[in-house]
Design brief:
The protein has 374 residues and is an alpha/beta fold. It folds into 2 domains: 5-169 and 357-371, Rossmann fold (3-Layer(aba) Sandwich); 172-354, Glycogen Phosphorylase B (Rossmann fold), CATH 3.40.50. The protein is built from 15 helices and 13 strands. Strands 3-2-1-4-5-6-7 form a 7-stranded parallel β-sheet, sandwiched between helices. The chain has a 6-stranded parallel β-sheet with strand order 10-9-8-11-12-13, with helices on both faces. α1 (18-29) links the parallel β1 (5-11) and β2. α3 (74-84) crosses α4 (95-108), α8 (209-222) packs across α13 (323-335) and α11 crosses α14. The longest helix is centred in the C-terminal third of the chain and has 18 residues, at 337-354. It starts with a strand and ends with a helix.
């Protein structure tokens, strides 16, 4: 029997976000008899740390990287952890963890795998040079979508042999709930007769909420707006600004800003339609979750959305930053409930067959075995 190998999973912190939920799903499905997982947050813990600890996986917090620029204390601290806990492999997630973790592992002579979850929205030449240099001692860099893979190959100019596309996937059990639609809606003050358009994501520029608010405003003007409601799940720096925009547009009474909610099943059960207005993405877990929950989806064509939806076979694609296109596509589903039902069923089957995190964890286990010395 193979000895248990220690894997250090490094990430900046563990808020309720896509990359963080993906890591949670991977940890839940790794074979603990073969791989002993330890999670390290460079900054503070974040909301999901308690869920990691509930799996008997320790979470280490460094409380570093508090200011802009390079934090010279991170790499020495990580080296101490690698040595002290006899780490066999370091698996890093997101840019700063990918940089600091690989530097520390390189100095300690430990194998590394780096995971990249987002496309580049702004190009920073020093980051590309660092990634190009570090990849020489990285076993493999995994890309969460076809667009992420393309950035790694064409922008970072990484060798084809060092890049592997492993599409972001979801924990299917997390979108299930026993709650009825009526009960799920009561939590947000919605009625059974309301038509709920929902979205899930951090309230940051990337997620494009401003364009969804404008599209929703136009929808209410051209339809029976009294029954249309908008549920915005998530939190972030733009919350106050977006609430002010909704007041300015005269739709604040129809928009619910719920904040962050961990019970995903209840969130999606309350909705009739899911909209994702992001300006850039890797491959959105919220989109995959909504599809797995049986919702029709309208999604901006960024990141890996087309990989999943094809030529609008499993959901509708719209250009980013275009509230009119969002309005028209959402309206198609509102006006044709049978069409929405068929599209939602097709999307649910596609996600459940192709984007299950249990399958992804199995592929990652194979990478660990290949990267670790015999």
């Amino acid at each position: 029997m193979m000895p248990t190998r220690s894997i250090l999973h490094l990430i900046t912190r563990l808020p309720i976000g896509g990359a963080e939920r993906l890591l949670l799903g991977i940890l839940r499905n790794l074979d603990s008899s073969e791989f002993k997982s330890i999670v390290c947050c460079i900054q503070d813990r974040g909301e999901l740390a308690s869920e990691v600890e509930a799996m008997d996986i320790p979470v280490i917090t460094l409380n570093l990287m508090r200011k802009g620029g390079y934090d010279w204390a991170v790499v020495p601290r990580l080296r101490e952890i690698i040595r002290g806990l006899h780490i066999d492999l370091v698996h890093t997630h997101l840019y700063h963890a990918n940089m600091y973790g690989r530097l520390a592992a390189l100095i300690e002579g430990v194998a590394t795998i780096a995971s990249v979850h987002n496309t580049y929205n702004r190009r920073k030449w020093h980051r590309h040079l660092i990634n190009r240099w570090l990849v020489r001692k990285t076993f493999v860099v995994t890309a969460g979508s076809e667009d992420v893979e393309r950035d790694l190959l064409t922008v970072d100019k990484l060798p084809r042999s060092k890049v592997l596309r492993l599409p972001n996937s979801i924990d299917l059990s997390r979108v299930e709930t026993s709650k009825s639609k009526i009960d799920a809606r009561m939590r947000f003050g919605f009625r059974e007769s309301d038509f709920i358009i929902g979205t899930v994501g951090r309230l940051e520029e990337q997620k494009g909420h401003i364009f969804l608010l404008k599209a929703f405003h136009n929808l209410r003007r051209r339809t029976d707006g009294r029954r249309l409601k908008l549920l915005i799940v998530g939190d972030g720096r733009l919350r106050s600004y977006l609430q002010e925009v909704s007041k300015h547009l005269g739709i604040s009474e129809a928009v619910c800003f719920s904040g962050s909610i961990e019970n995903l099943g209840e969130i999606y059960r309350a909705m009739d339609l899911f909209a994702l207005p992001s300006l850039w993405e890797g491959l959105s877990l919220a989109m995959l979750e909504a599809m797995a929950a049986g919702l029709p989806v309208v999604v901006t064509e960024v990141g890996g959305a087309r990989d999943v939806l094809g030529e609008s076979q499993y959901g509708l694609l719209v250009p980013p930053g275009d509230p009119s296109a969002l309005e028209i596509s959402i309206g198609k589903f509102i006006d044709a409930p049978d069409y929405a039902f068929l599209m939602a069923n097709a999307g649910r089957e596609r996600v459940r067959l192709n984007y299950d995190v249990a399958s992804l964890a199995g592929q990652i286990e194979c990478l660990y075995r290949a990267a670790l010395p015999r």
